Amino acid sequence: MEKQIMSNYRIKAHAYIATSLHRYIATATILALYPFLTTNAFAGTESTTVSKSSVGAPAQKVVKLKEIKKKYQKLLVGERNIASAMSVITPEQIKHSSSSENIYSILKKTPSVNEYQQNIGPGTPVLTVRGVRMTQLAQTLDGIPMTSLLSGGEGAYLNNNVGTIVSTGQINGIHIYPGVAPPDRGGFATVGGTVSYITKQPTDKFYTDLFSKIGSFSTDVYGAQVNSGIIPHTDGLKVLMRLSQTQTAGYIQNTPARYTDFLFSAVKPYDYGLSKITGTVIYNRGNGYLISAPTATAQLNQNGLFYNYPLSDASTQQVNNYVTAILGDSTYINSHLVIGAKAFYIGKSSNFYSYTNPKYINATYPYQVNFNAPYFAYGPIGSNYGNNNNFSYDPKAVFGSYQAGESAEIINSSSRTIGFVPKVNIFLPHNAITIGGLIAQERTGNGGEYFYGSLNMPKINGYNASAYGGTATRTVYSGYVQDKISLLDNTLHVEPGVTLTGVNTTNYVPWNLYGSPPNAYTLGNYDKEILPYIGISYDLAPKIIAYGSYGKGARFAPVNDYILGPSGSTTLAPGPETVNAYEAGIRYVGKHLYLNFDGYLQNMHGMFSFYINYLSGLAEYANIGEEQMKGLEFSGKYLLTPEWSVFGSASYNKATYMNSFSANDTPFEGQYGYVFAGNPLPAVPNWLANLGVNYHRGGFHGEIYGSYTGSQPTTYDLPPTETNPLLADATVPNTSNYLAGYFLVNLSASYKIPIHKDHLQSLTVSLNVDNLLDRHYYVHYYQSYKEYGFNAVGNPYNQAYPGEPRFIEVGLSGRFS
């Protein structure tokens, strides 16, 4: 029996070798399988028997890998010798999370992550990692990019905010790499971090789970999961299918939502179990209402903290569909070479509906009821106001006033992404080389935007369409090479790498409110970046590892930042924004104790900025901004006894604008503003911390933990009377008004009851209480003016999103076999 520790994963292997094969073959086989084991580090336990005939040898030469256990140690967090900071969300943490959480909210259990959302269940939140915003982060799903190649994040502003590509019930682990990760983990286009999600995989034994949960705010979840186990007479084929339905009234009034999630996952081993083909299909759907702008605090004080206008007065609804398909292959060539590849497809469609009661569309009503009523942004439209003949709808003639005729808006959009991700692992005596790449293309569909006086509107191009048609396309060509060199008796690890990425972007704009087909144009641009990385880790002692790294990251400009130049044919496009990230840290990995402490410095250059070019009279984007993030992070876990453990993390971050420039400085980047050198980044807390205790014995699991989110800068709007046009009505960081910090306590408990009667193996009852102490707090706060006809009117007032109150949920699931 051999026992080998690789990174932070312990791999136990018992190899029974036929007399004609040397012990080295078994060891080399396990080493060659290591990429699969680390890629599927959350997959549980598998057993494989390998029978293989050898050329020139009897037919039954056997290499029997009786057991390859992939056991993720709950003590060890991350990969032991990785030279960058790293955090892990384990299968147990995902399993015991509540239905109010999603794939983003559970990231708050790790250092330097701040997140909030305005509803229960899956949805796109406001998320920062070390102050870097979600659109600037890379996200991967089983190694493929799940973020929009065209825009970053899930998509453009106020697109695809309800539902997600992958939901909590469909994943079995998350890796978080803040800063710049090694190239094979870095994902596509990031200037501050990568979040890597790993989907659930089928296991060897058959089972069926039926589950249901009932929670606060009329929240209920029900569904089924079927794991085929190894299907007889298929040479190892196994399949997992999961279907769940979630519905909620929302903790904010008048924000109901409904979600459907489906997962299909299959694994087919071949080559006597040394290689495998994988297939994953995910279909998710979200239909829900959200608030397009925070509510005035005066109204929350008067009507209750979770007040929201009735849907008959104001509504913003999204109906979104997400389809993801991944086909992968991992082929064992020999003890020195493993090759693999994945082909993928991601399809997204979004239908956006917004309505505001006309009685609120006036200059005297003091608050912004809905940000998306067309009149707020455009003012009167129609042929009488200079619009061309392609917009023949007359709001005043049909509805009696321009305000009433421009109270509703429908936007249809879609995109599809196809791609190919190859990977080669080469194992040499003292180093492991990884070569990989990404070839992918995202293309938008022919969407449209329509105005009317009600949501029951005709959608007619040439009548009430403010924009229709048009296709944006981005093709990505990226490749990397990475080496991990082990020296000094495997105590010194040097990990150099480099990524080369080229991006070709086109955007055909055939028609919009201000231009007709004869004025159609195509925008195009090509960008490329070379991104180096170097990491070093050294075993100071058997349990103490020191590490440091440098990496460069780049994010390419969203396609909406491309504009037509003054010549009528030139594309004006900003180049990539970049980061130079430095890290140094030390970690202790013992039998009962894990500790990690690191410091980082991230200098961000050429940040996208919106400004007016007074020579051309055009609004342009350019690479002007400079930002800096620096801080310290700590995390740890201690096993008190086999049943009891304590865990915690703390981080300090100082995120600062290094120069003055026009910026999207609100958290969701939906509002133009201006920042000054030395300003802190809004909505980025200096301090974040977690502390908890976990108990597990027999069938019982219990955990209670507290999370602290420190105070954070807010924003306010300068008055419209500012003489500098860059500053008039500009949103700026508010250094004199900080959002108060808050501390939340969450509880989870479950008990598995053995049954073993007929086909019912067990019943599991569960309890989750989020915000146990029912703290009332704001997650976002700022001061602004009301927008009316794209102008600021009235007096400034405070607006806020409330945080989720106490959420109680009970669940029951049964396992059948």
From TrEMBL:
Subcellular location: Cell outer membrane
Protein name per the record: TonB-dependent receptor
Pfam families: Plug, TonB_dep_Rec_b-barrel
Keyword Iron: yes
PROSITE patterns: TONB_DEPENDENT_REC_3
An annotated Gene Ontology molecular function: siderophore uptake transmembrane transporter activity
Topology of the protein relative to the lipid bilayer: Multi-pass membrane protein
Recorded family membership: Belongs to the TonB-dependent receptor family.
Segments forming domain TonB-dependent receptor plug: 80-190
Start and end residues of each TonB-dependent receptor-like beta-barrel domain: 317-772
GO terms under cellular component: cell outer membrane
Organism: Acidithiobacillus ferrianus
Gene3D superfamilies: TonB-dependent receptor, beta-barrel domain, TonB-dependent receptor, plug domain
Keyword Iron among record annotations: yes
Domain of life: Bacteria
Main location: membrane
